[in-house]
């Protein structure tokens, strides 16, 4: 019998869309299963944390980890998987950059608990009972994981070998894992550490739409306009994160006439996806009559972007240069 | 610490080669006095200043970031300063959302002949940042719980 690889699929705070993306391999999943024994995948099979605890270090060959680090349990499992695995792959945008749950860095634990357990209209909670990490009830000690103040990406917690971004990663990119795993199995060879399994260029480089004239005078939200299906969406005033986002996804949103939301994260050259996007917008919005615009006019123009942080860092706030909301004056 | 307690802010300045930096030079050779809180970096055009530089300066502990460029219409590269204005205004809106006072980011137009003006706008900005107090990014100890 041929040598087989031990594969684990671990998860943090996740919607499990990444698990579905793996199942979306359809019949190609057979080529993965031919290579690999799945030794841990709590979403799809009956595995418990104790199974992982009982393994020896480096017992697992390859781990795909998806989800943000949001709780003490996420952190514990991430550390445990790292110890048990030879190769750790951050799978999906949450693990790579924090993802959508990372937007919680715009608020904090206290505010979240107050909203959820006090302020929502349907909540009746006069004593403001909130989840505790440990309570004793009827002689039993009950525990819950602790919610962290900040969301973090996987590489901010543990050493990560490879990255496979996307929300969720596209099948074409997941397929690229199969020969990598096969090569590791047969020859023990791996790509250079830190490799991102995607394109090194921006999405714009791979975009099928035509770019003609990069000047816009206003911003349209997708529902406010029926875009010309052949022309660059950004040139039509729709906020598309293509210029600041890594390609490799096959431009699936663009092909459905929706703007890029940035799930592939920043490119290798760009340190900060949002900062890159601010520069891109500043280069095209209000250029035509730039000499006639006062500071107030430009302010009005830019305030058409209702939520710049949420839009430009939708998937990458935890790995941004300024990665959380702070408070002036302490 | 606040402005009254002798807080001396660190200000990072990016000044364009043709106007603001030359203005600073003139302030220097004219022996105009202004506070020493500004650490200046010369760039060829204010339009070349990436928002990344600003965020990185703040993240690394600058209490304020000063951007100096040519007056509108005077850009050595035709329109770099208009781009700067749009970029800085959008960056300010983003800073506000991140809880950082947009007043920590200052854009001023200074020509090569305006040594006096350079000293004045820098002095004013330093005063403004003193009133704001230290950069909140350095204060916040990210709690884990």
Description:
The complex is a heterodimer of chains A (330) and B (145). With 330 residues, chain A is α/β, with parallel strands linked by helices. Chain A has 3 domains: 5-100 and 149-187, 3-Layer(aba) Sandwich (Rossmann fold); 109-146, no CATH class; 203-319, no CATH class. Helix content of chain A is 30%, strand content 14%. In chain A, strand 6 and strand 7 form a beta hairpin. Chain A is globular and about 70 Å long. Chain B has 5 helices and 4 strands; from the N terminus they run E-H-E-H-E-H-E-H-H. Chain B has helices at residues 20-29, 51-59, 80-97, 115-132, 136-139; strands spanning 11-16, 38-43, 64-69, 105-109. The two termini of chain B are 26 Å apart. Chain B is of the alpha/beta class and 145 residues long. The A-B interface holds A 106, 109, 146, 148-150, 270-272, 274-276, 278-279, 281-283, 285-287, 290-291, 293, 295, 298-299, 301-303, 305, 307-309, 312, 320-322, 324-330 and B 50-52, 54-56, 58-59, 72-73, 79, 82-83, 85-87, 89-91, 93-95, 97-101, 132-133, 136-137, 139-140, 142-145.
Helices and strands, with pairings:
The complex is a heterodimer of chains A (330) and B (145).
Chain A lengths: L4 E7 L5 H7 L5 H7 E5 L8 H6 L5 E7 L2 E3 H13 E7 L1 H5 L11 H11 L14 E4 L2 E4 L3 E6 L9 E3 L6 H5 L1 H11 L15 H4 L45 H4 L17 H12 L10 H8 L5 H5 L18
Chain B lengths: L10 E6 L3 H10 L8 E6 L7 H9 L4 E6 L10 H18 L7 E5 L5 H18 L3 H4 L6
Parallel strand pairs in B: 1-2, 1-3, 3-4
Structural class of chain B: alpha/beta
> What would you call the structural class of chain A?
alpha/beta
* DSSP, total strands of chain A: 9
Number of helices of chain B: 5
- CATH fold field value of the largest domain in chain A: Rossmann fold
């Amino acid at each position: 019998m041929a040598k087989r690889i031990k594969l684990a699929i671990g998860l943090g705070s996740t919607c499990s869309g990444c698990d579905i993306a793996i199942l979306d391999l359809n019949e190609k999943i057979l080529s993965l299963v031919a290579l690999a024994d799945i030794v841990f995948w709590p979403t799809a099979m009956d595995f418990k944390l104790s199974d992982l605890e009982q393994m020896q270090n480096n017992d697992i060959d390859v781990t795909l980890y998806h989800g943000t680090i949001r709780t003490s349990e996420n952190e514990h499992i991430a550390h445990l998987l790292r110890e048990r695995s030879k190769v750790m792959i951050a799978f999906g945008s949450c693990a790579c950059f924090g993802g959508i749950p990372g937007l919680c860095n715009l608020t904090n634990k206290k505010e979240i608990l107050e909203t959820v357990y006090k302020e929502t209209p349907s909540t009746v909670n006069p004593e403001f009972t909130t989840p505790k990490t440990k309570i004793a009830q009827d002689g039993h000690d009950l525990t819950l994981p602790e919610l962290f103040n900040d969301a973090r990406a996987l590489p901010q917690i543990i050493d990560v070998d490879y990255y496979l971004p996307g929300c969720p990663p596209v099948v074409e990119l997941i397929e690229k894992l199969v020969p990598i795993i096969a090569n590791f199995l047969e020859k023990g060879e791996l790509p250079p550490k830190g490799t991102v399994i995607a394109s090194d260029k921006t999405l714009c480089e791979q975009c099928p739409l035509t770019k003609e004239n990069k000047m816009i005078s206003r911003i349209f939200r997708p529902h406010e306009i029926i875009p010309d299906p052949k022309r660059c969406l950004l040139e039509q005033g729709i906020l598309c994160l293509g210029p600041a986002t890594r390609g490799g996804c096959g431009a699936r949103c663009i092909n459905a006439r929706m703007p890029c939301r940035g799930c592939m994260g920043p490119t290798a050259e760009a340190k900060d996806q949002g900062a890159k996007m601010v520069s891109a917008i500043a280069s095209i919005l209000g250029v035509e009559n730039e000499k006639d615009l006062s500071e107030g006019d430009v302010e009005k123009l830019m305030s058409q972007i209702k939520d710049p942080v949420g839009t430009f860092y939708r998937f990458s706030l935890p790995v941004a240069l300024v990665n959380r909301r702070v408070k002036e004056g302490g | 610490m606040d402005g009254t307690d002798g807080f001396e802010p660190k200000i990072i300045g990016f000044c364009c080669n043709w106007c603001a930096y030359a203005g600073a030079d003139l302030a220097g050779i004219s022996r105009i006095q202004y506070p020493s809180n500004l650490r200046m970096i010369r760039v060829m055009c204010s339009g070349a200043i990436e928002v990344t530089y600003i965020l990185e300066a703040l993240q690394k502990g600058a209490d304020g970031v000063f951007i100096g460029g040519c007056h509108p219409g005077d850009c050595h590269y035709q329109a770099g300063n208009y781009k700067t204005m749009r970029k800085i205004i959008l960056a300010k809106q983003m800073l506000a959302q991140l809880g950082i006072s947009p007043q920590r980011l200052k854009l001023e137009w200074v020509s090569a002949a305006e040594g006096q003006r350079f000293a004045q706008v820098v002095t004013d900005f330093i005063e403004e940042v003193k009133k704001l107090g230290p950069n909140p990014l350095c204060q916040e100890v990210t709690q884990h719980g």
